[in-house]
Design the sequence.
């Protein structure tokens, strides 16, 4: 039984992947969704009120068409698996946490109050990004909460809700 | 005589202990933020903008202008020390600055950068002090067609001078302009407010710029453990810094030429300090007696780049105040601060608010020696803090962004908008779109829209002919079309040569 000989270029072909850069479509898609939503609201306006947005919309749609056309002409790109791995990932746990943690806690902003929100968000985001030093995980949220309370509530008179700390702050 | 009276009022307003304190604070914070890679000048001013909400107009503007002046120099520290420009405008400085650091002469490079930054800035603001009145007089002759085209060029020029794809940058600008048209129209109609009362006043600039500049950048940083890896041994003795200072002063021609280039580029809406620094660097290299030393540690190269990028700020601020059209992304934020204070930038501002305008320029002049002082005394310590962990930086700046946005109107709606723009800005940065063009578009939409409506009201049915019949607007139109065509063909040529 002779061993099946594998050519080096065949190995290389196996490590190459055909990828369509779907991430590239996020921004054009967001632009198109906005345009549709905008004109659902604005189609009944007077000529003066519609002229500038109409010109902008036509220009934007033409530019988006050019971008998408270029994208499809170049794609699907054949990438080396190694280089694909080397490019940084769009979604990492840390990035998702940076948006999701404040998003979730902001939805209960009035209940938590500014101080608790600040401490909880700072702690959770730092932890999600990989901070493990206990002293820093205690002092940073506390320092931020108290510092920002003084700057924004006391100095800048922003109406930050007291929430859970209402009794504490009177 | 009138000019002297305005100058005296400006001096009286700026030469107070209160104002001097904010000049020092702004300069100090500007250098720190500028020295942190990833935190651009626009981001620095955006993050500190909420602190001005309760200040009076002049103090708030003095504070933000001092940050703006210092942040460009701060970016030079990292460019020289770590080959990591604090902001794009410091990229040209890194070419020779870091080469000197590798030769163990970082102090000399820092000294040259300090002197060039301060002198470029000083010259630019002195020109602004004596020239802004005349520029305002010229601007007063502009009609709605001219202002419409200049405002539109603020977005278009970004596509023409940017290093990325002109198509993507222009699409970003158009998208920003369309977002900026939300709100009540000059005709009195409500346009695309989605039934949301918070949008009746139009799209607020603070959530857009904090989202696009700060949150998007934080999402980029969240993928790294430290902002920058700094393992380089550096020599930053004060003696070496003074040696660099002296060396820069012995190059008056380069200093002056670069400052004029910087000021000139700054006067072009949205052209920005990056273009100024690279243009000046190329010109200096062409006229240099030792062009072969460029890129290998030429102090002349550092002087050319730093003098121009700081001088650019004076030109950009002049355009912003006189025309109400941002000269750069950072001045767009300062314009946002002006409008939040209830002030209307434009040629009439120089006539009606001379104390504010001249006080602001004098404060910018005062911030130059303050910048030199901080740079020499504290530059060392600041550059040591560059390896700050993103695990600390990201949550701190994120919370500051949330509070800063909320404090604008005490509205959670603005915070949600900021987060939304942050995520969009992240994807835009990731795929080479331009968040800066979106911000410029949102800023400029109301002025372009209202000037277009004014054009229609003044010129009637044949309103579009006004753009061709008025000589100034025709010239602006030709320049605009030519620069766009050049950008498109230039980009195509670059891609073809890259493919070959």
Sequence:
């Amino acid at each position: 039984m002779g061993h099946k000989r594998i050519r080096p270029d065949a190995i290389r072909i196996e490590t190459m992947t055909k990828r369509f850069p779907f991430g590239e479509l996020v921004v054009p898609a967001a632009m198109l969704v906005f345009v549709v939503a905008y004109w659902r609201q604005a189609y009944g306006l007077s000529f003066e009120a519609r002229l500038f947005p109409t010109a902008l919309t036509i220009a934007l749609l033409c530019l988006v068409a050019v971008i998408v056309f270029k994208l499809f002409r170049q794609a699907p790109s054949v990438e080396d698996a190694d280089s694909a791995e080397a490019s940084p990932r769009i979604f990492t746990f840390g990035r998702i946490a940076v948006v999701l943690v404040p998003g979730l806690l902001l939805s209960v902003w009035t209940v938590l109050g500014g101080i608790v929100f600040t401490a909880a968000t700072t702690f959770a985001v730092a932890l999600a990004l990989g901070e493990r030093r206990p002293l820093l995980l205690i002092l940073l949220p506390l320092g931020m909460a108290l510092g920002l309370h003084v700057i924004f509530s006391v100095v800048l008179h922003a109406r930050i809700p007291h929430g859970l700390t209402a009794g504490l702050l009177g | 005589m009138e000019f002297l009276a305005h100058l005296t009022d400006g001096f009286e307003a700026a030469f107070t202990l209160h104002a001097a304190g904010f000049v020092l604070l702004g300069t100090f914070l500007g250098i720190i933020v500028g020295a942190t890679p990833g935190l651009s000048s626009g981001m620095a001013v955006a993050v500190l903008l909420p602190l001005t909400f309760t200040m009076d107009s002049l103090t708030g503007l003095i504070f933000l202008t001092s940050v703006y002046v210092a942040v460009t120099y701060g970016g030079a520290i990292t460019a020289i020390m770590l080959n990591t420009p604090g902001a794009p405008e410091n990229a040209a400085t890194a070419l020779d600055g870091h080469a000197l650091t590798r030769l163990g002469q970082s102090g000399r490079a820092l000294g040259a950068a300090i002197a060039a930054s301060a002198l470029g800035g000083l010259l630019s603001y002195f020109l602004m002090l004596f020239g802004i009145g005349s520029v305002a007089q010229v601007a007063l002759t502009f009609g709605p067609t001219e202002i419409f085209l200049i405002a539109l060029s603020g977005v278009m020029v970004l596509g023409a001078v940017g290093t990325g794809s002109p198509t993507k940058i222009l699409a970003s600008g158009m998208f920003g302009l369309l977002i900026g048209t939300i709100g009540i129209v000059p005709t009195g109609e409500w346009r695309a407010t989605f039934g949301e009362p918070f949008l009746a006043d139009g799209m607020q600039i603070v959530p857009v710029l904090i989202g696009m500049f700060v949150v998007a950048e934080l999402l980029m940083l969240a993928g790294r453990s430290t902002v920058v890896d700094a393992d380089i041994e550096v020599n930053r003795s004060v003696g070496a810094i003074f040696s660099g200072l002296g060396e820069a002063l012995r190059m008056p021609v380069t200093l002056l030429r670069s400052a004029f280039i910087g000021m000139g580029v700054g006067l072009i809406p949205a052209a920005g300090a990056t273009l100024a620094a690279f243009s000046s660097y190329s010109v200096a290299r062409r006229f240099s007696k030792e062009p072969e030393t460029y890129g290998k540690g030429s102090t002349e190269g550092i002087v050319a780049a730093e003098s121009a990028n700081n001088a650019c700020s004076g030109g950009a601020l002049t355009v912003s105040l006189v025309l109400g059209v941002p000269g750069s992304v950072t001045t767009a934020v300062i314009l946002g601060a002006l409008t939040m204070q209830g002030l209307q930038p434009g040629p009439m501002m120089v006539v009606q608010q001379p104390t504010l305008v001249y006080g602001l320029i004098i404060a910018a002049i005062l911030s130059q020696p303050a910048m030199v002082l901080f740079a020499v005394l504290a530059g060392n310590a600041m550059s040591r803090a560059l390896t700050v962990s993103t695990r600390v930086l990201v949550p701190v700046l994120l919370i500051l962004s949330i509070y800063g946005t909320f404090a604008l109107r005490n509205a959670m709606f603005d915070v949600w908008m900021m987060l939304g723009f942050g995520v969009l800005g992240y994807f835009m940065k990731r795929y080479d779109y331009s968040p800066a063009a979106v911000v410029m578009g949102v800023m400029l939409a109301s002025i372009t829209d209202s000037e277009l409506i004014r054009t229609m009201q003044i010129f009637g049915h044949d309103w579009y002919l006004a753009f061709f019949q008025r000589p100034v607007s025709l010239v602006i139109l030709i320049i605009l079309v030519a620069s766009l065509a050049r950008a498109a063909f230039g980009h195509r040529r670059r891609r073809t040569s890259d493919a070959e």
